[in-house]
Structures are given as structure tokens and as C-alpha cells.
Amino acid sequence: MSLGQNKIARGAVWVIMGLVLVGLIGFGSFNFGGGGQTIGKVGETEISANRYFREVNAQLDAIQQQFGQRLPFAQAQAFGVDQQALRVVLSQVAMENETARLGLSVGDEELAKRIRDIPAFSGVDGSFDRTTYDFVLQQSGLTATEFEESLRSEVARTILQTAVAGGAAVQPAYVDRLYGWARETRDVTWAALDAGLLDAPVGAPDDAQLTEYYEANPQAFTLPETRKITYGWIRPEDIVDQVEVSEADLRAAYTARAAEFNQPERRLVERLVFPDPASAEAAAARLTDGSASFEDLVAERGLDLADIDLGDVSEDELGAAGAVVFALDGPGTTGVAESSLGPAIFRVNAVLSARETSFEEAEPDLRGELALEAARRQLETTMADVDDALAGGATIEDIGSEFGLTVETLDWTGTSFDGIAAYDEFAKAATEVTEDDYPEVERLADGGLFALRLDAIVPPTLQPLDDVRDEAVAGWTAAETVTRI
């Protein structure tokens, strides 16, 4: 690291420590009264007991991964784990207090994008899956609201930390180079080259030509190594109909997720920010007299509509500008309003009405979700029982009969993506298992479980020409077409 980088890094550390020290003016001894919800606060930002204990557990988990065993809490205290956890939480909350003071936050659209990009929340098709999301959070002891607020705070902290640590001025030449790259466009002229350019069709190959092509390209007609696998599996969906959900649990879930079922009005909004009030007022006047459109103003600022799009937002999320934006009867533009980034003109493109979902309307979905969660918990118990049975010498067929697992066989090649083969956990196990391994029960990402046995390995096999004649003809025709063009 260079001397300049060391200075910047040290400066960032002192800034963060300053935020902690200033905020701790309001921090006293731990307060476990009043239900034990908070243990203190930094500035105006409270520190919850749950957050502190989650950080303690995270420290204990890290020690367990390093040494292979979990320390008793008394021993962990002797090592200073509790104080280390407190230091981590204090530094985080100090940063959060400062981001709140600066009005620095992350919008719902960006937050949703970051959540969708987290691999742990992906379903079997690789895209975001709400059921998997809820399950992972439940396993972590978090509600969706707690996790989303935690992620929102983490992103805001990162933005502030980056700004502090990277406070050195950027050279104009560097800015110009980046701007030129981002705004660069290229015009391309292209032409398609296909069989339509030939004077006559390629025609069909004779036997000699086809055999020559087949022998010259054996890889195209060779089956990959095939693993013959017997497996048993069961998913929460397979037993969900056997699970009972009480009305009390349904109503409790409805109450806990009231914000989801009763959403305020939201609007699709764009925000065009100006460097000072005078330029903003001048732009607003041009909008009013019709001498410029909103798109003209955006272009004059060197921006695209995508650069100013806020997505769908609520009145509260817009801060001081919320009242102005939501005062519009429908789509349209506002006058100049103060935003977190300075004076701005807002455009409303659509109004999304407030949505209120009654308990009766939400009940079917809630029942399905709670039943699925209960089924996952039930499979946790089943997994332990299956593990004991396999350890006692039971076969895949035995556990299928005893515990209701579906037992099937599969010719695994690594390119199979149907059914259980779509799960990464199964693919990894199928790739690594040997014929000498005993079956072991493993968990699937959606809460299901499986165990497998490798019965045989078939090496790569070249298929006879008669079995792949159509593919060989198609390959020869494509190659011959390219040659003639």
C-alpha cells in the first residue's frame, strides 16, 4: 500500500472513530430494562439487544469454524468475544447514525435488486424465489423486515465508508476518460452470410462424405461419462397437505406482515436535480411556458431518463419532496422541490393506488406459506431419522419405504437439469460420489432432502453412425455451407 493510501485509510479510521465517540455521548451502561429491547444508542440510533447478540453469535460461529468446536460463552468472554462484538456493533451503528443525519438511504428498487442478486435466495431455476427467501431468513432467525432494514443500512454504510476512504480528489483526465468510455457509441454495418447466397443448394452427402465427416468429428457424437445413480428424495411440497395450520398462527402472521398487506399509494417518479435553485427555477419556467420538454431538460443535463428514474416510491421515501410530488392529481411534473440531492423537478409517470388486503383475502397465501414452513421443519426431523437409518446400514430403497422418500434412478451426465438434477446440491453430490461411498442424507436449497448411491460408471462412448445419422447429416451440411460461402 502506498504512503498516500495509508494516510487516506488512517484518516477514514479516525473519521469513523470520531463518529463513534460523538455518538457515544448518549451511550451509558447496558440497559436491559423495559423488555431488554435496547442496550444503548449512538446519537439518535438505538442498538437493539438482538443485534448485539446476533453479532456475538457471529463471532462464536467464526471461532467454531476455525477450531472445530463452539466455545462456552464464559470462555468466549475470557477471549474478549463479547467486547469485540460490541466494538463491531458500535462502529456500524455510528456509521448508520451519520448516514441518517446526512439523509443517505437506499431506495426500495435498489434494495429489491440487491436482494434478487443474492444467490442464497435463488430457486431451482436460478432466479429469485420468495419461498427460498423466507426459508433462509427463518433459518437465520430473521424476519423479512429485519433483514431488509439491515441490508439497507449496510449499503448506506458502504456508500459513506467509500466516500470517507476515497475522499482524495480525482484527476480531471481520469474523469474525462471514464465519461468518454461510458458515453461512447459505435455504428456497425453487418451482413448475414447464409445458404441463401449460394447459387445452388448444398444437397445431401453421400455415404463416403458422411463417414469422413463422422470420423473427423468424433467428439460431436460421443456420449459423455454417465453415472448410473439410485436416489431417494422428498420435498416440503410433497408433505405440505399433511400439515395443519391454526387460525391463530395465520392471524399472527397477518399482523406481523401488516406492511406487506396494507401498502400506501406509490408513484412511478423521475427526479431531475439541478446544481442550484436559480437554474432549477429557470428550467421550471421553461417547462411552464412550453419552450422545453422534460426530456429536453434531462438531455441538457447530460443524462438519460434511466439516470433519473427512482422507480416506484411512497410519499415518505421522498422526504420533504413527498408532499409536493403526491399533491399532483396524476401524471405530470412538479415545480422546484428540495430533495436530498438539492433542488429538483419531479415527474410522475403513473400512480399505483394504495393496496389493502384483508385477512380473508390473504389467508390462502398465508396458509400455503405457513404450511410450507411447517413442512420444512418436519423434514428437519425426518432428515435426522434418515441419517440414523443410513448409519445403521439401511439402503436407499429401505429409507424410501420407511420415510416416504421417492426412489428413482438417473443416468447422470452433468448436463441433466430436470427434476432433482436441477438442484446444485444434488449435482455436486452426483459429481463427487464414488462407488465405495455409503449413502448420506443431504439437504436441498428449498428444504428438501435426498440421499444417493452410485451404481456404476459408464465411460465416454462413441455412438454408432447409424444411431446419429441425422445429426451427422446436419453437421456435414452446415460445414459444407460455410466452405462454399
Write up this protein.
The strands form five sheets. This protein has a four-stranded antiparallel β-sheet, with helices on both faces. It folds into four domains: 3-165, Triger factor/SurA peptide-binding fold (Orthogonal Bundle); 195-221 and 464-484, no CATH class; 226-239 and 370-459, Roll (Chitinase A, domain 3), CATH 3.10.50; 265-353, Roll (Chitinase A, domain 3), CATH 3.10.50.40. The chain has helices at residues 3-23, 49-67, 73-78, 81-102, 108-116, 130-139, 144-165, 172-183, 207-216, 236-239, 247-256, 258-261, 277-289, 294-300, 305-308, 322-326, 359-391, 396-403, 424-432, 469-484; strands spanning 38-42, 45-48, 222-223, 226-234, 262-263, 266-273, 309-314, 332-339, 342-352, 355-356, 406-412, 442-443, 449-458, 461-462. The model is unreliable at 1-36 (pLDDT under 50). By secondary structure, the chain is of the alpha+beta class. α1 (3-23) packs across α4 (81-102), α2 packs across α4 (81-102) and α9 packs across α20 (469-484). The protein has 20 helices and 14 strands.
